[in-house]
What we know:
The protein is α/β, with parallel strands linked by helices. It has a single domain (20-178), classed as Glutaredoxin (3-Layer(aba) Sandwich), CATH 3.40.30. The protein has helices spanning 50-67, 83-93, 106-111, 147-157; strands spanning 20-21, 28-29, 39-45, 71-77, 99-101, 115-116, 118-122, 128-132, 172-173. The strands form 3 sheets. The protein has a 5-stranded mixed sheet with strand order 5-4-3-7-8. It has a two-stranded antiparallel ribbon with strand order 1-2. Strands 6-9 form a two-stranded antiparallel sheet. A hairpin with a 6-residue loop joins strand 1 (20-21) and strand 2 (28-29). 42% of the residues are buried.
Amino acid sequence: MPISEEPPFDLGQPLRPFRLPEPLTGRLVGPEDFPEAQAILVAFLCNGCPDVQHVAGALAALTRDLELEGLRTLAVNSAEDAPGDVAAEALRRRYVFPYLIDQTQAVARAYGAVCAPDFYLFDRRRRLAYHGRFDDTRPGGRPAHGGELKRAALQVLSGQPGPAQQIPARGCGLWPALAGD
């Protein structure tokens, strides 16, 4: 039985629109709120995952740096984290992007996201240019640096296609069938 109800999300496919609540502000936010963005990153996160905790600080720094270049980020929490916990995490991590809550997991299903963290980068035409991991680090090893995602984002922001080699994300499963993977 397939995990995603949507067709596979292949490179070059258009961004799948959504609007989700941002617990920190109470607003509904979606990619269409950033028409000026040169690229849009949709990051699937959750608070308790060791893999997300490992990359969170580097992700916050990377998105702050690349926001000046035209990258806009939307983080989506499709786990079972409470809205108040999502808001607190956004403040604690000093995220400069909306951290949204997907309580029905409809957005995660639409994107085919099966783990957190997972990253979908769209170019200025809103076509998928990168879907993969943050970097090659793991919890308990060397610090996260975001090299793979940053290289992809810089390529896309400069008008080039995403990288030819893209390594899938690995992290905590978003679906009960994947728990413990």
